[in-house]
Amino acid sequence: MSLRPVVKIVKGVPASDGDGVRLTRMLGTAEAQMFDPFLMLDCFDNDQASDYMGGFPDHPHRGFETVTYMLEGRMRHRDNTGREGVIGPGGIQWMRAGRGIVHSEMPEQSEGRMRGFQLWVNLPAKLKMSAPGYSEFESDAIPVEAREGGVSVKVISGVTESGTVGPIGGGAVDALYFDVVLPAGTRFEEPVGSDRNAMLAVYEGQVRVAGGRIDALSGVFLGAGERVLVEAVTDARVLLLAGRPIGEPVFWHGPFVMNSRDEIVQAFHDFQSGTF
Is the peptide bond before 37 cis (omega within 30 degrees of 0)? Predict the structure, then answer.
């Protein structure tokens, strides 16, 4: 089966969101606007409480899903459907905004490191107005697959070639979301299917993909093929994201992602009129 080539490498861009939370945007920038079905990927990594304590106060969404993955620290979710939960190190939160949700994500700590990711995943038109939903999974509910040479694969979403199943089903886009730990000199190879778009987010160390060296905080966008191969130059950690493209028009304005300008206008009207 053919290996996927590298089409584009994009360095993450420093950004701020919520109430002043400092982060690195690895997808959803001017240089990497989206990668169907993925809309945005943020990496937050702050030792200073002042860089994260403002958190993400109440704000609306419509038309997509979010997956928050914590590496260090604790974050509390609350939303207007009555759902609430806290995830700690290694835990994940999945939220479907669907037809509309108002939520907050606030630090459940006042000191120490806060580190993790938030991924936005688009929804097809037929699901954009579906009911909102929320689930959370602590670290011990997320399987880790041990591989040769000390390589490990944490399976957040989807199924590995060996059959390890993540707690989040692939959803509407049949997504794979793996956190891969590679000691220096090891390799990770995995089929992702020829019908998915696939990218890598290198967030620790240095790796080699298709012969080229790639440093931390880089997004790696892969071309057509069936398998992904990553070789570790140093100890490294990489996210593998793959999903079936939706192939529909995308109109994205702030917290709303729909299929037309009229739908965006309607989303703002619905939110402002209190019908979310």
Answer: yes
Q: Which residues contact 199 (CB under 8 A, 6 or more apart)?
A: 27, 35, 38, 219, 220, 221, 222, 241, 242
Paired tokens of 122: 């688009």
200 in a domain, yes or no? yes
Total structural domains within the chain:
1
Report CA-CA distances (Å) from 208 to 20, 188, 204, 214.
Answer: 34, 11, 13, 6
* 1, part of any domain: no
Residue ranges making up the domain that contains 29 = 6-272
pTM of the complete model = 0.96
> Does position 68 have pLDDT exceeding 90, yes or no?
yes
Flag whether pLDDT at 67 surpasses 80: yes
CATH of the domain at 163: 2.60.120.10
Looking at the DSSP bridge assignments, the partners of residue 40 are 120
